[in-house]
């Protein structure tokens, strides 16, 4: 579904100090946690507020949605431990240096489940796992409400020899206190279970 344009979005993209532009240089001095597909930012804003000693980077390919998230971060005084980048993971995340990211969050990405040939577009497909391995990302925290995507992700992580921990087939049945919900998670959890896993790159253990 196409995002409706916001008249204020271009100004936000140009002037919000949290949005990194041009030759992107991620902040130094703290471990960096990256979220791919931050949506309107609820998850990453709250995560950055709870963990100010971590530098959080939120990536979103839709400029209008990213502008909304960055504006919300300013309104909620999230602190400069949170910055945003307009980028598409399909372009290879070339602004990230090898070994720079210490954790990757993938929350409720497109399951690409309608056609079998679309499976390679999933952010947990072997091709993307190879990209994360190339960037030496040591751990991935993944959530979805799509069982097909979750099962295929389990297979991909296992095939690529990632260590799987804390696998949940119904996260909200006994929800951990430290779980931070996304907007999507709150809205769609009434329709079925939320699946979650943690995957660790054995080469980085």
Description:
- 28% of the residues lie in helices and 21% in strands.
- It starts with 8 loop residues before the first helix and ends with a strand.
- It has an eight-stranded mixed β-sheet, sandwiched between helices.
- The radius of gyration is 16 Å and the shape is globular.
- The protein is α/β, with parallel strands linked by helices.
- The protein has helices at residues 9-15, 42-50, 63-75, 126-134, 147-159, 183-188, and strands spanning 19-20, 32-36, 55-60, 82-86, 103-107, 139-144, 162-168, 195-201.
- Helix 1 crosses helix 3 (63-75).
Write the layout of secondary structure elements.
Elements: H1 9-15, E1 19-20, E2 32-36, H2 42-50, E3 55-60, H3 63-75, E4 82-86, E5 103-107, H4 126-134, E6 139-144, H5 147-159, E7 162-168, H6 183-188, E8 195-201
Parallel strand pairs: 1-4, 2-3, 2-5, 3-4, 5-6
Antiparallel strand pairs: 6-8, 7-8
Helix pairs in contact: 1-3
List keywords for this structure.
single chain, 6 helices, 205 residues, eight-stranded mixed beta sheet, alpha/beta
Q: Give the overall form.
A: globular
Please tell me how large the radius of gyration is.
16 Å
Largest sheet: 8 strands, mixed
Our count of helices gives 6
In the predicted model, the low-confidence regions spanning at least 5 consecutive residues are none
């Amino acid at each position: 579904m196409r995002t409706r344009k916001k008249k204020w979005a271009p100004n936000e993209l140009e002037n919000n100090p949290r949005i990194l532009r041009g030759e992107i240089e991620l902040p130094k001095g703290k471990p960096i946690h990256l979220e791919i597909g931050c949506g309107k930012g609820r998850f990453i804003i709250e995560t950055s507020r709870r963990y100010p000693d971590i530098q959080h980077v939120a990536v979103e390919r839709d400029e209008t949605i990213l502008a909304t998230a960055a504006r919300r971060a300013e309104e909620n005084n999230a602190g400069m431990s949170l910055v945003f980048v307009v980028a598409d993971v399909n372009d290879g995340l070339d602004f990230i240096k090898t070994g720079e990211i210490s954790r990757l969050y993938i929350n409720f990405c497109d399951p690409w489940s309608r056609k079998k040939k679309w499976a390679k577009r999933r952010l947990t497909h072997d091709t993307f796992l190879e990209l994360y391995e190339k960037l030496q990302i040591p751990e991935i925290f993944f959530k979805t409400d799509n069982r097909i995507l979750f099962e295929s992700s389990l297979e991909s992580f296992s095939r690529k020899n990632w260590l799987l921990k804390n696998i949940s087939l119904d996260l909200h049945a006994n929800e951990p206190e430290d779980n931070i919900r996304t907007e999507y998670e709150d809205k769609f959890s009434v329709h079925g279970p939320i699946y979650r896993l943690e995957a660790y790159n054995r080469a980085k253990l």
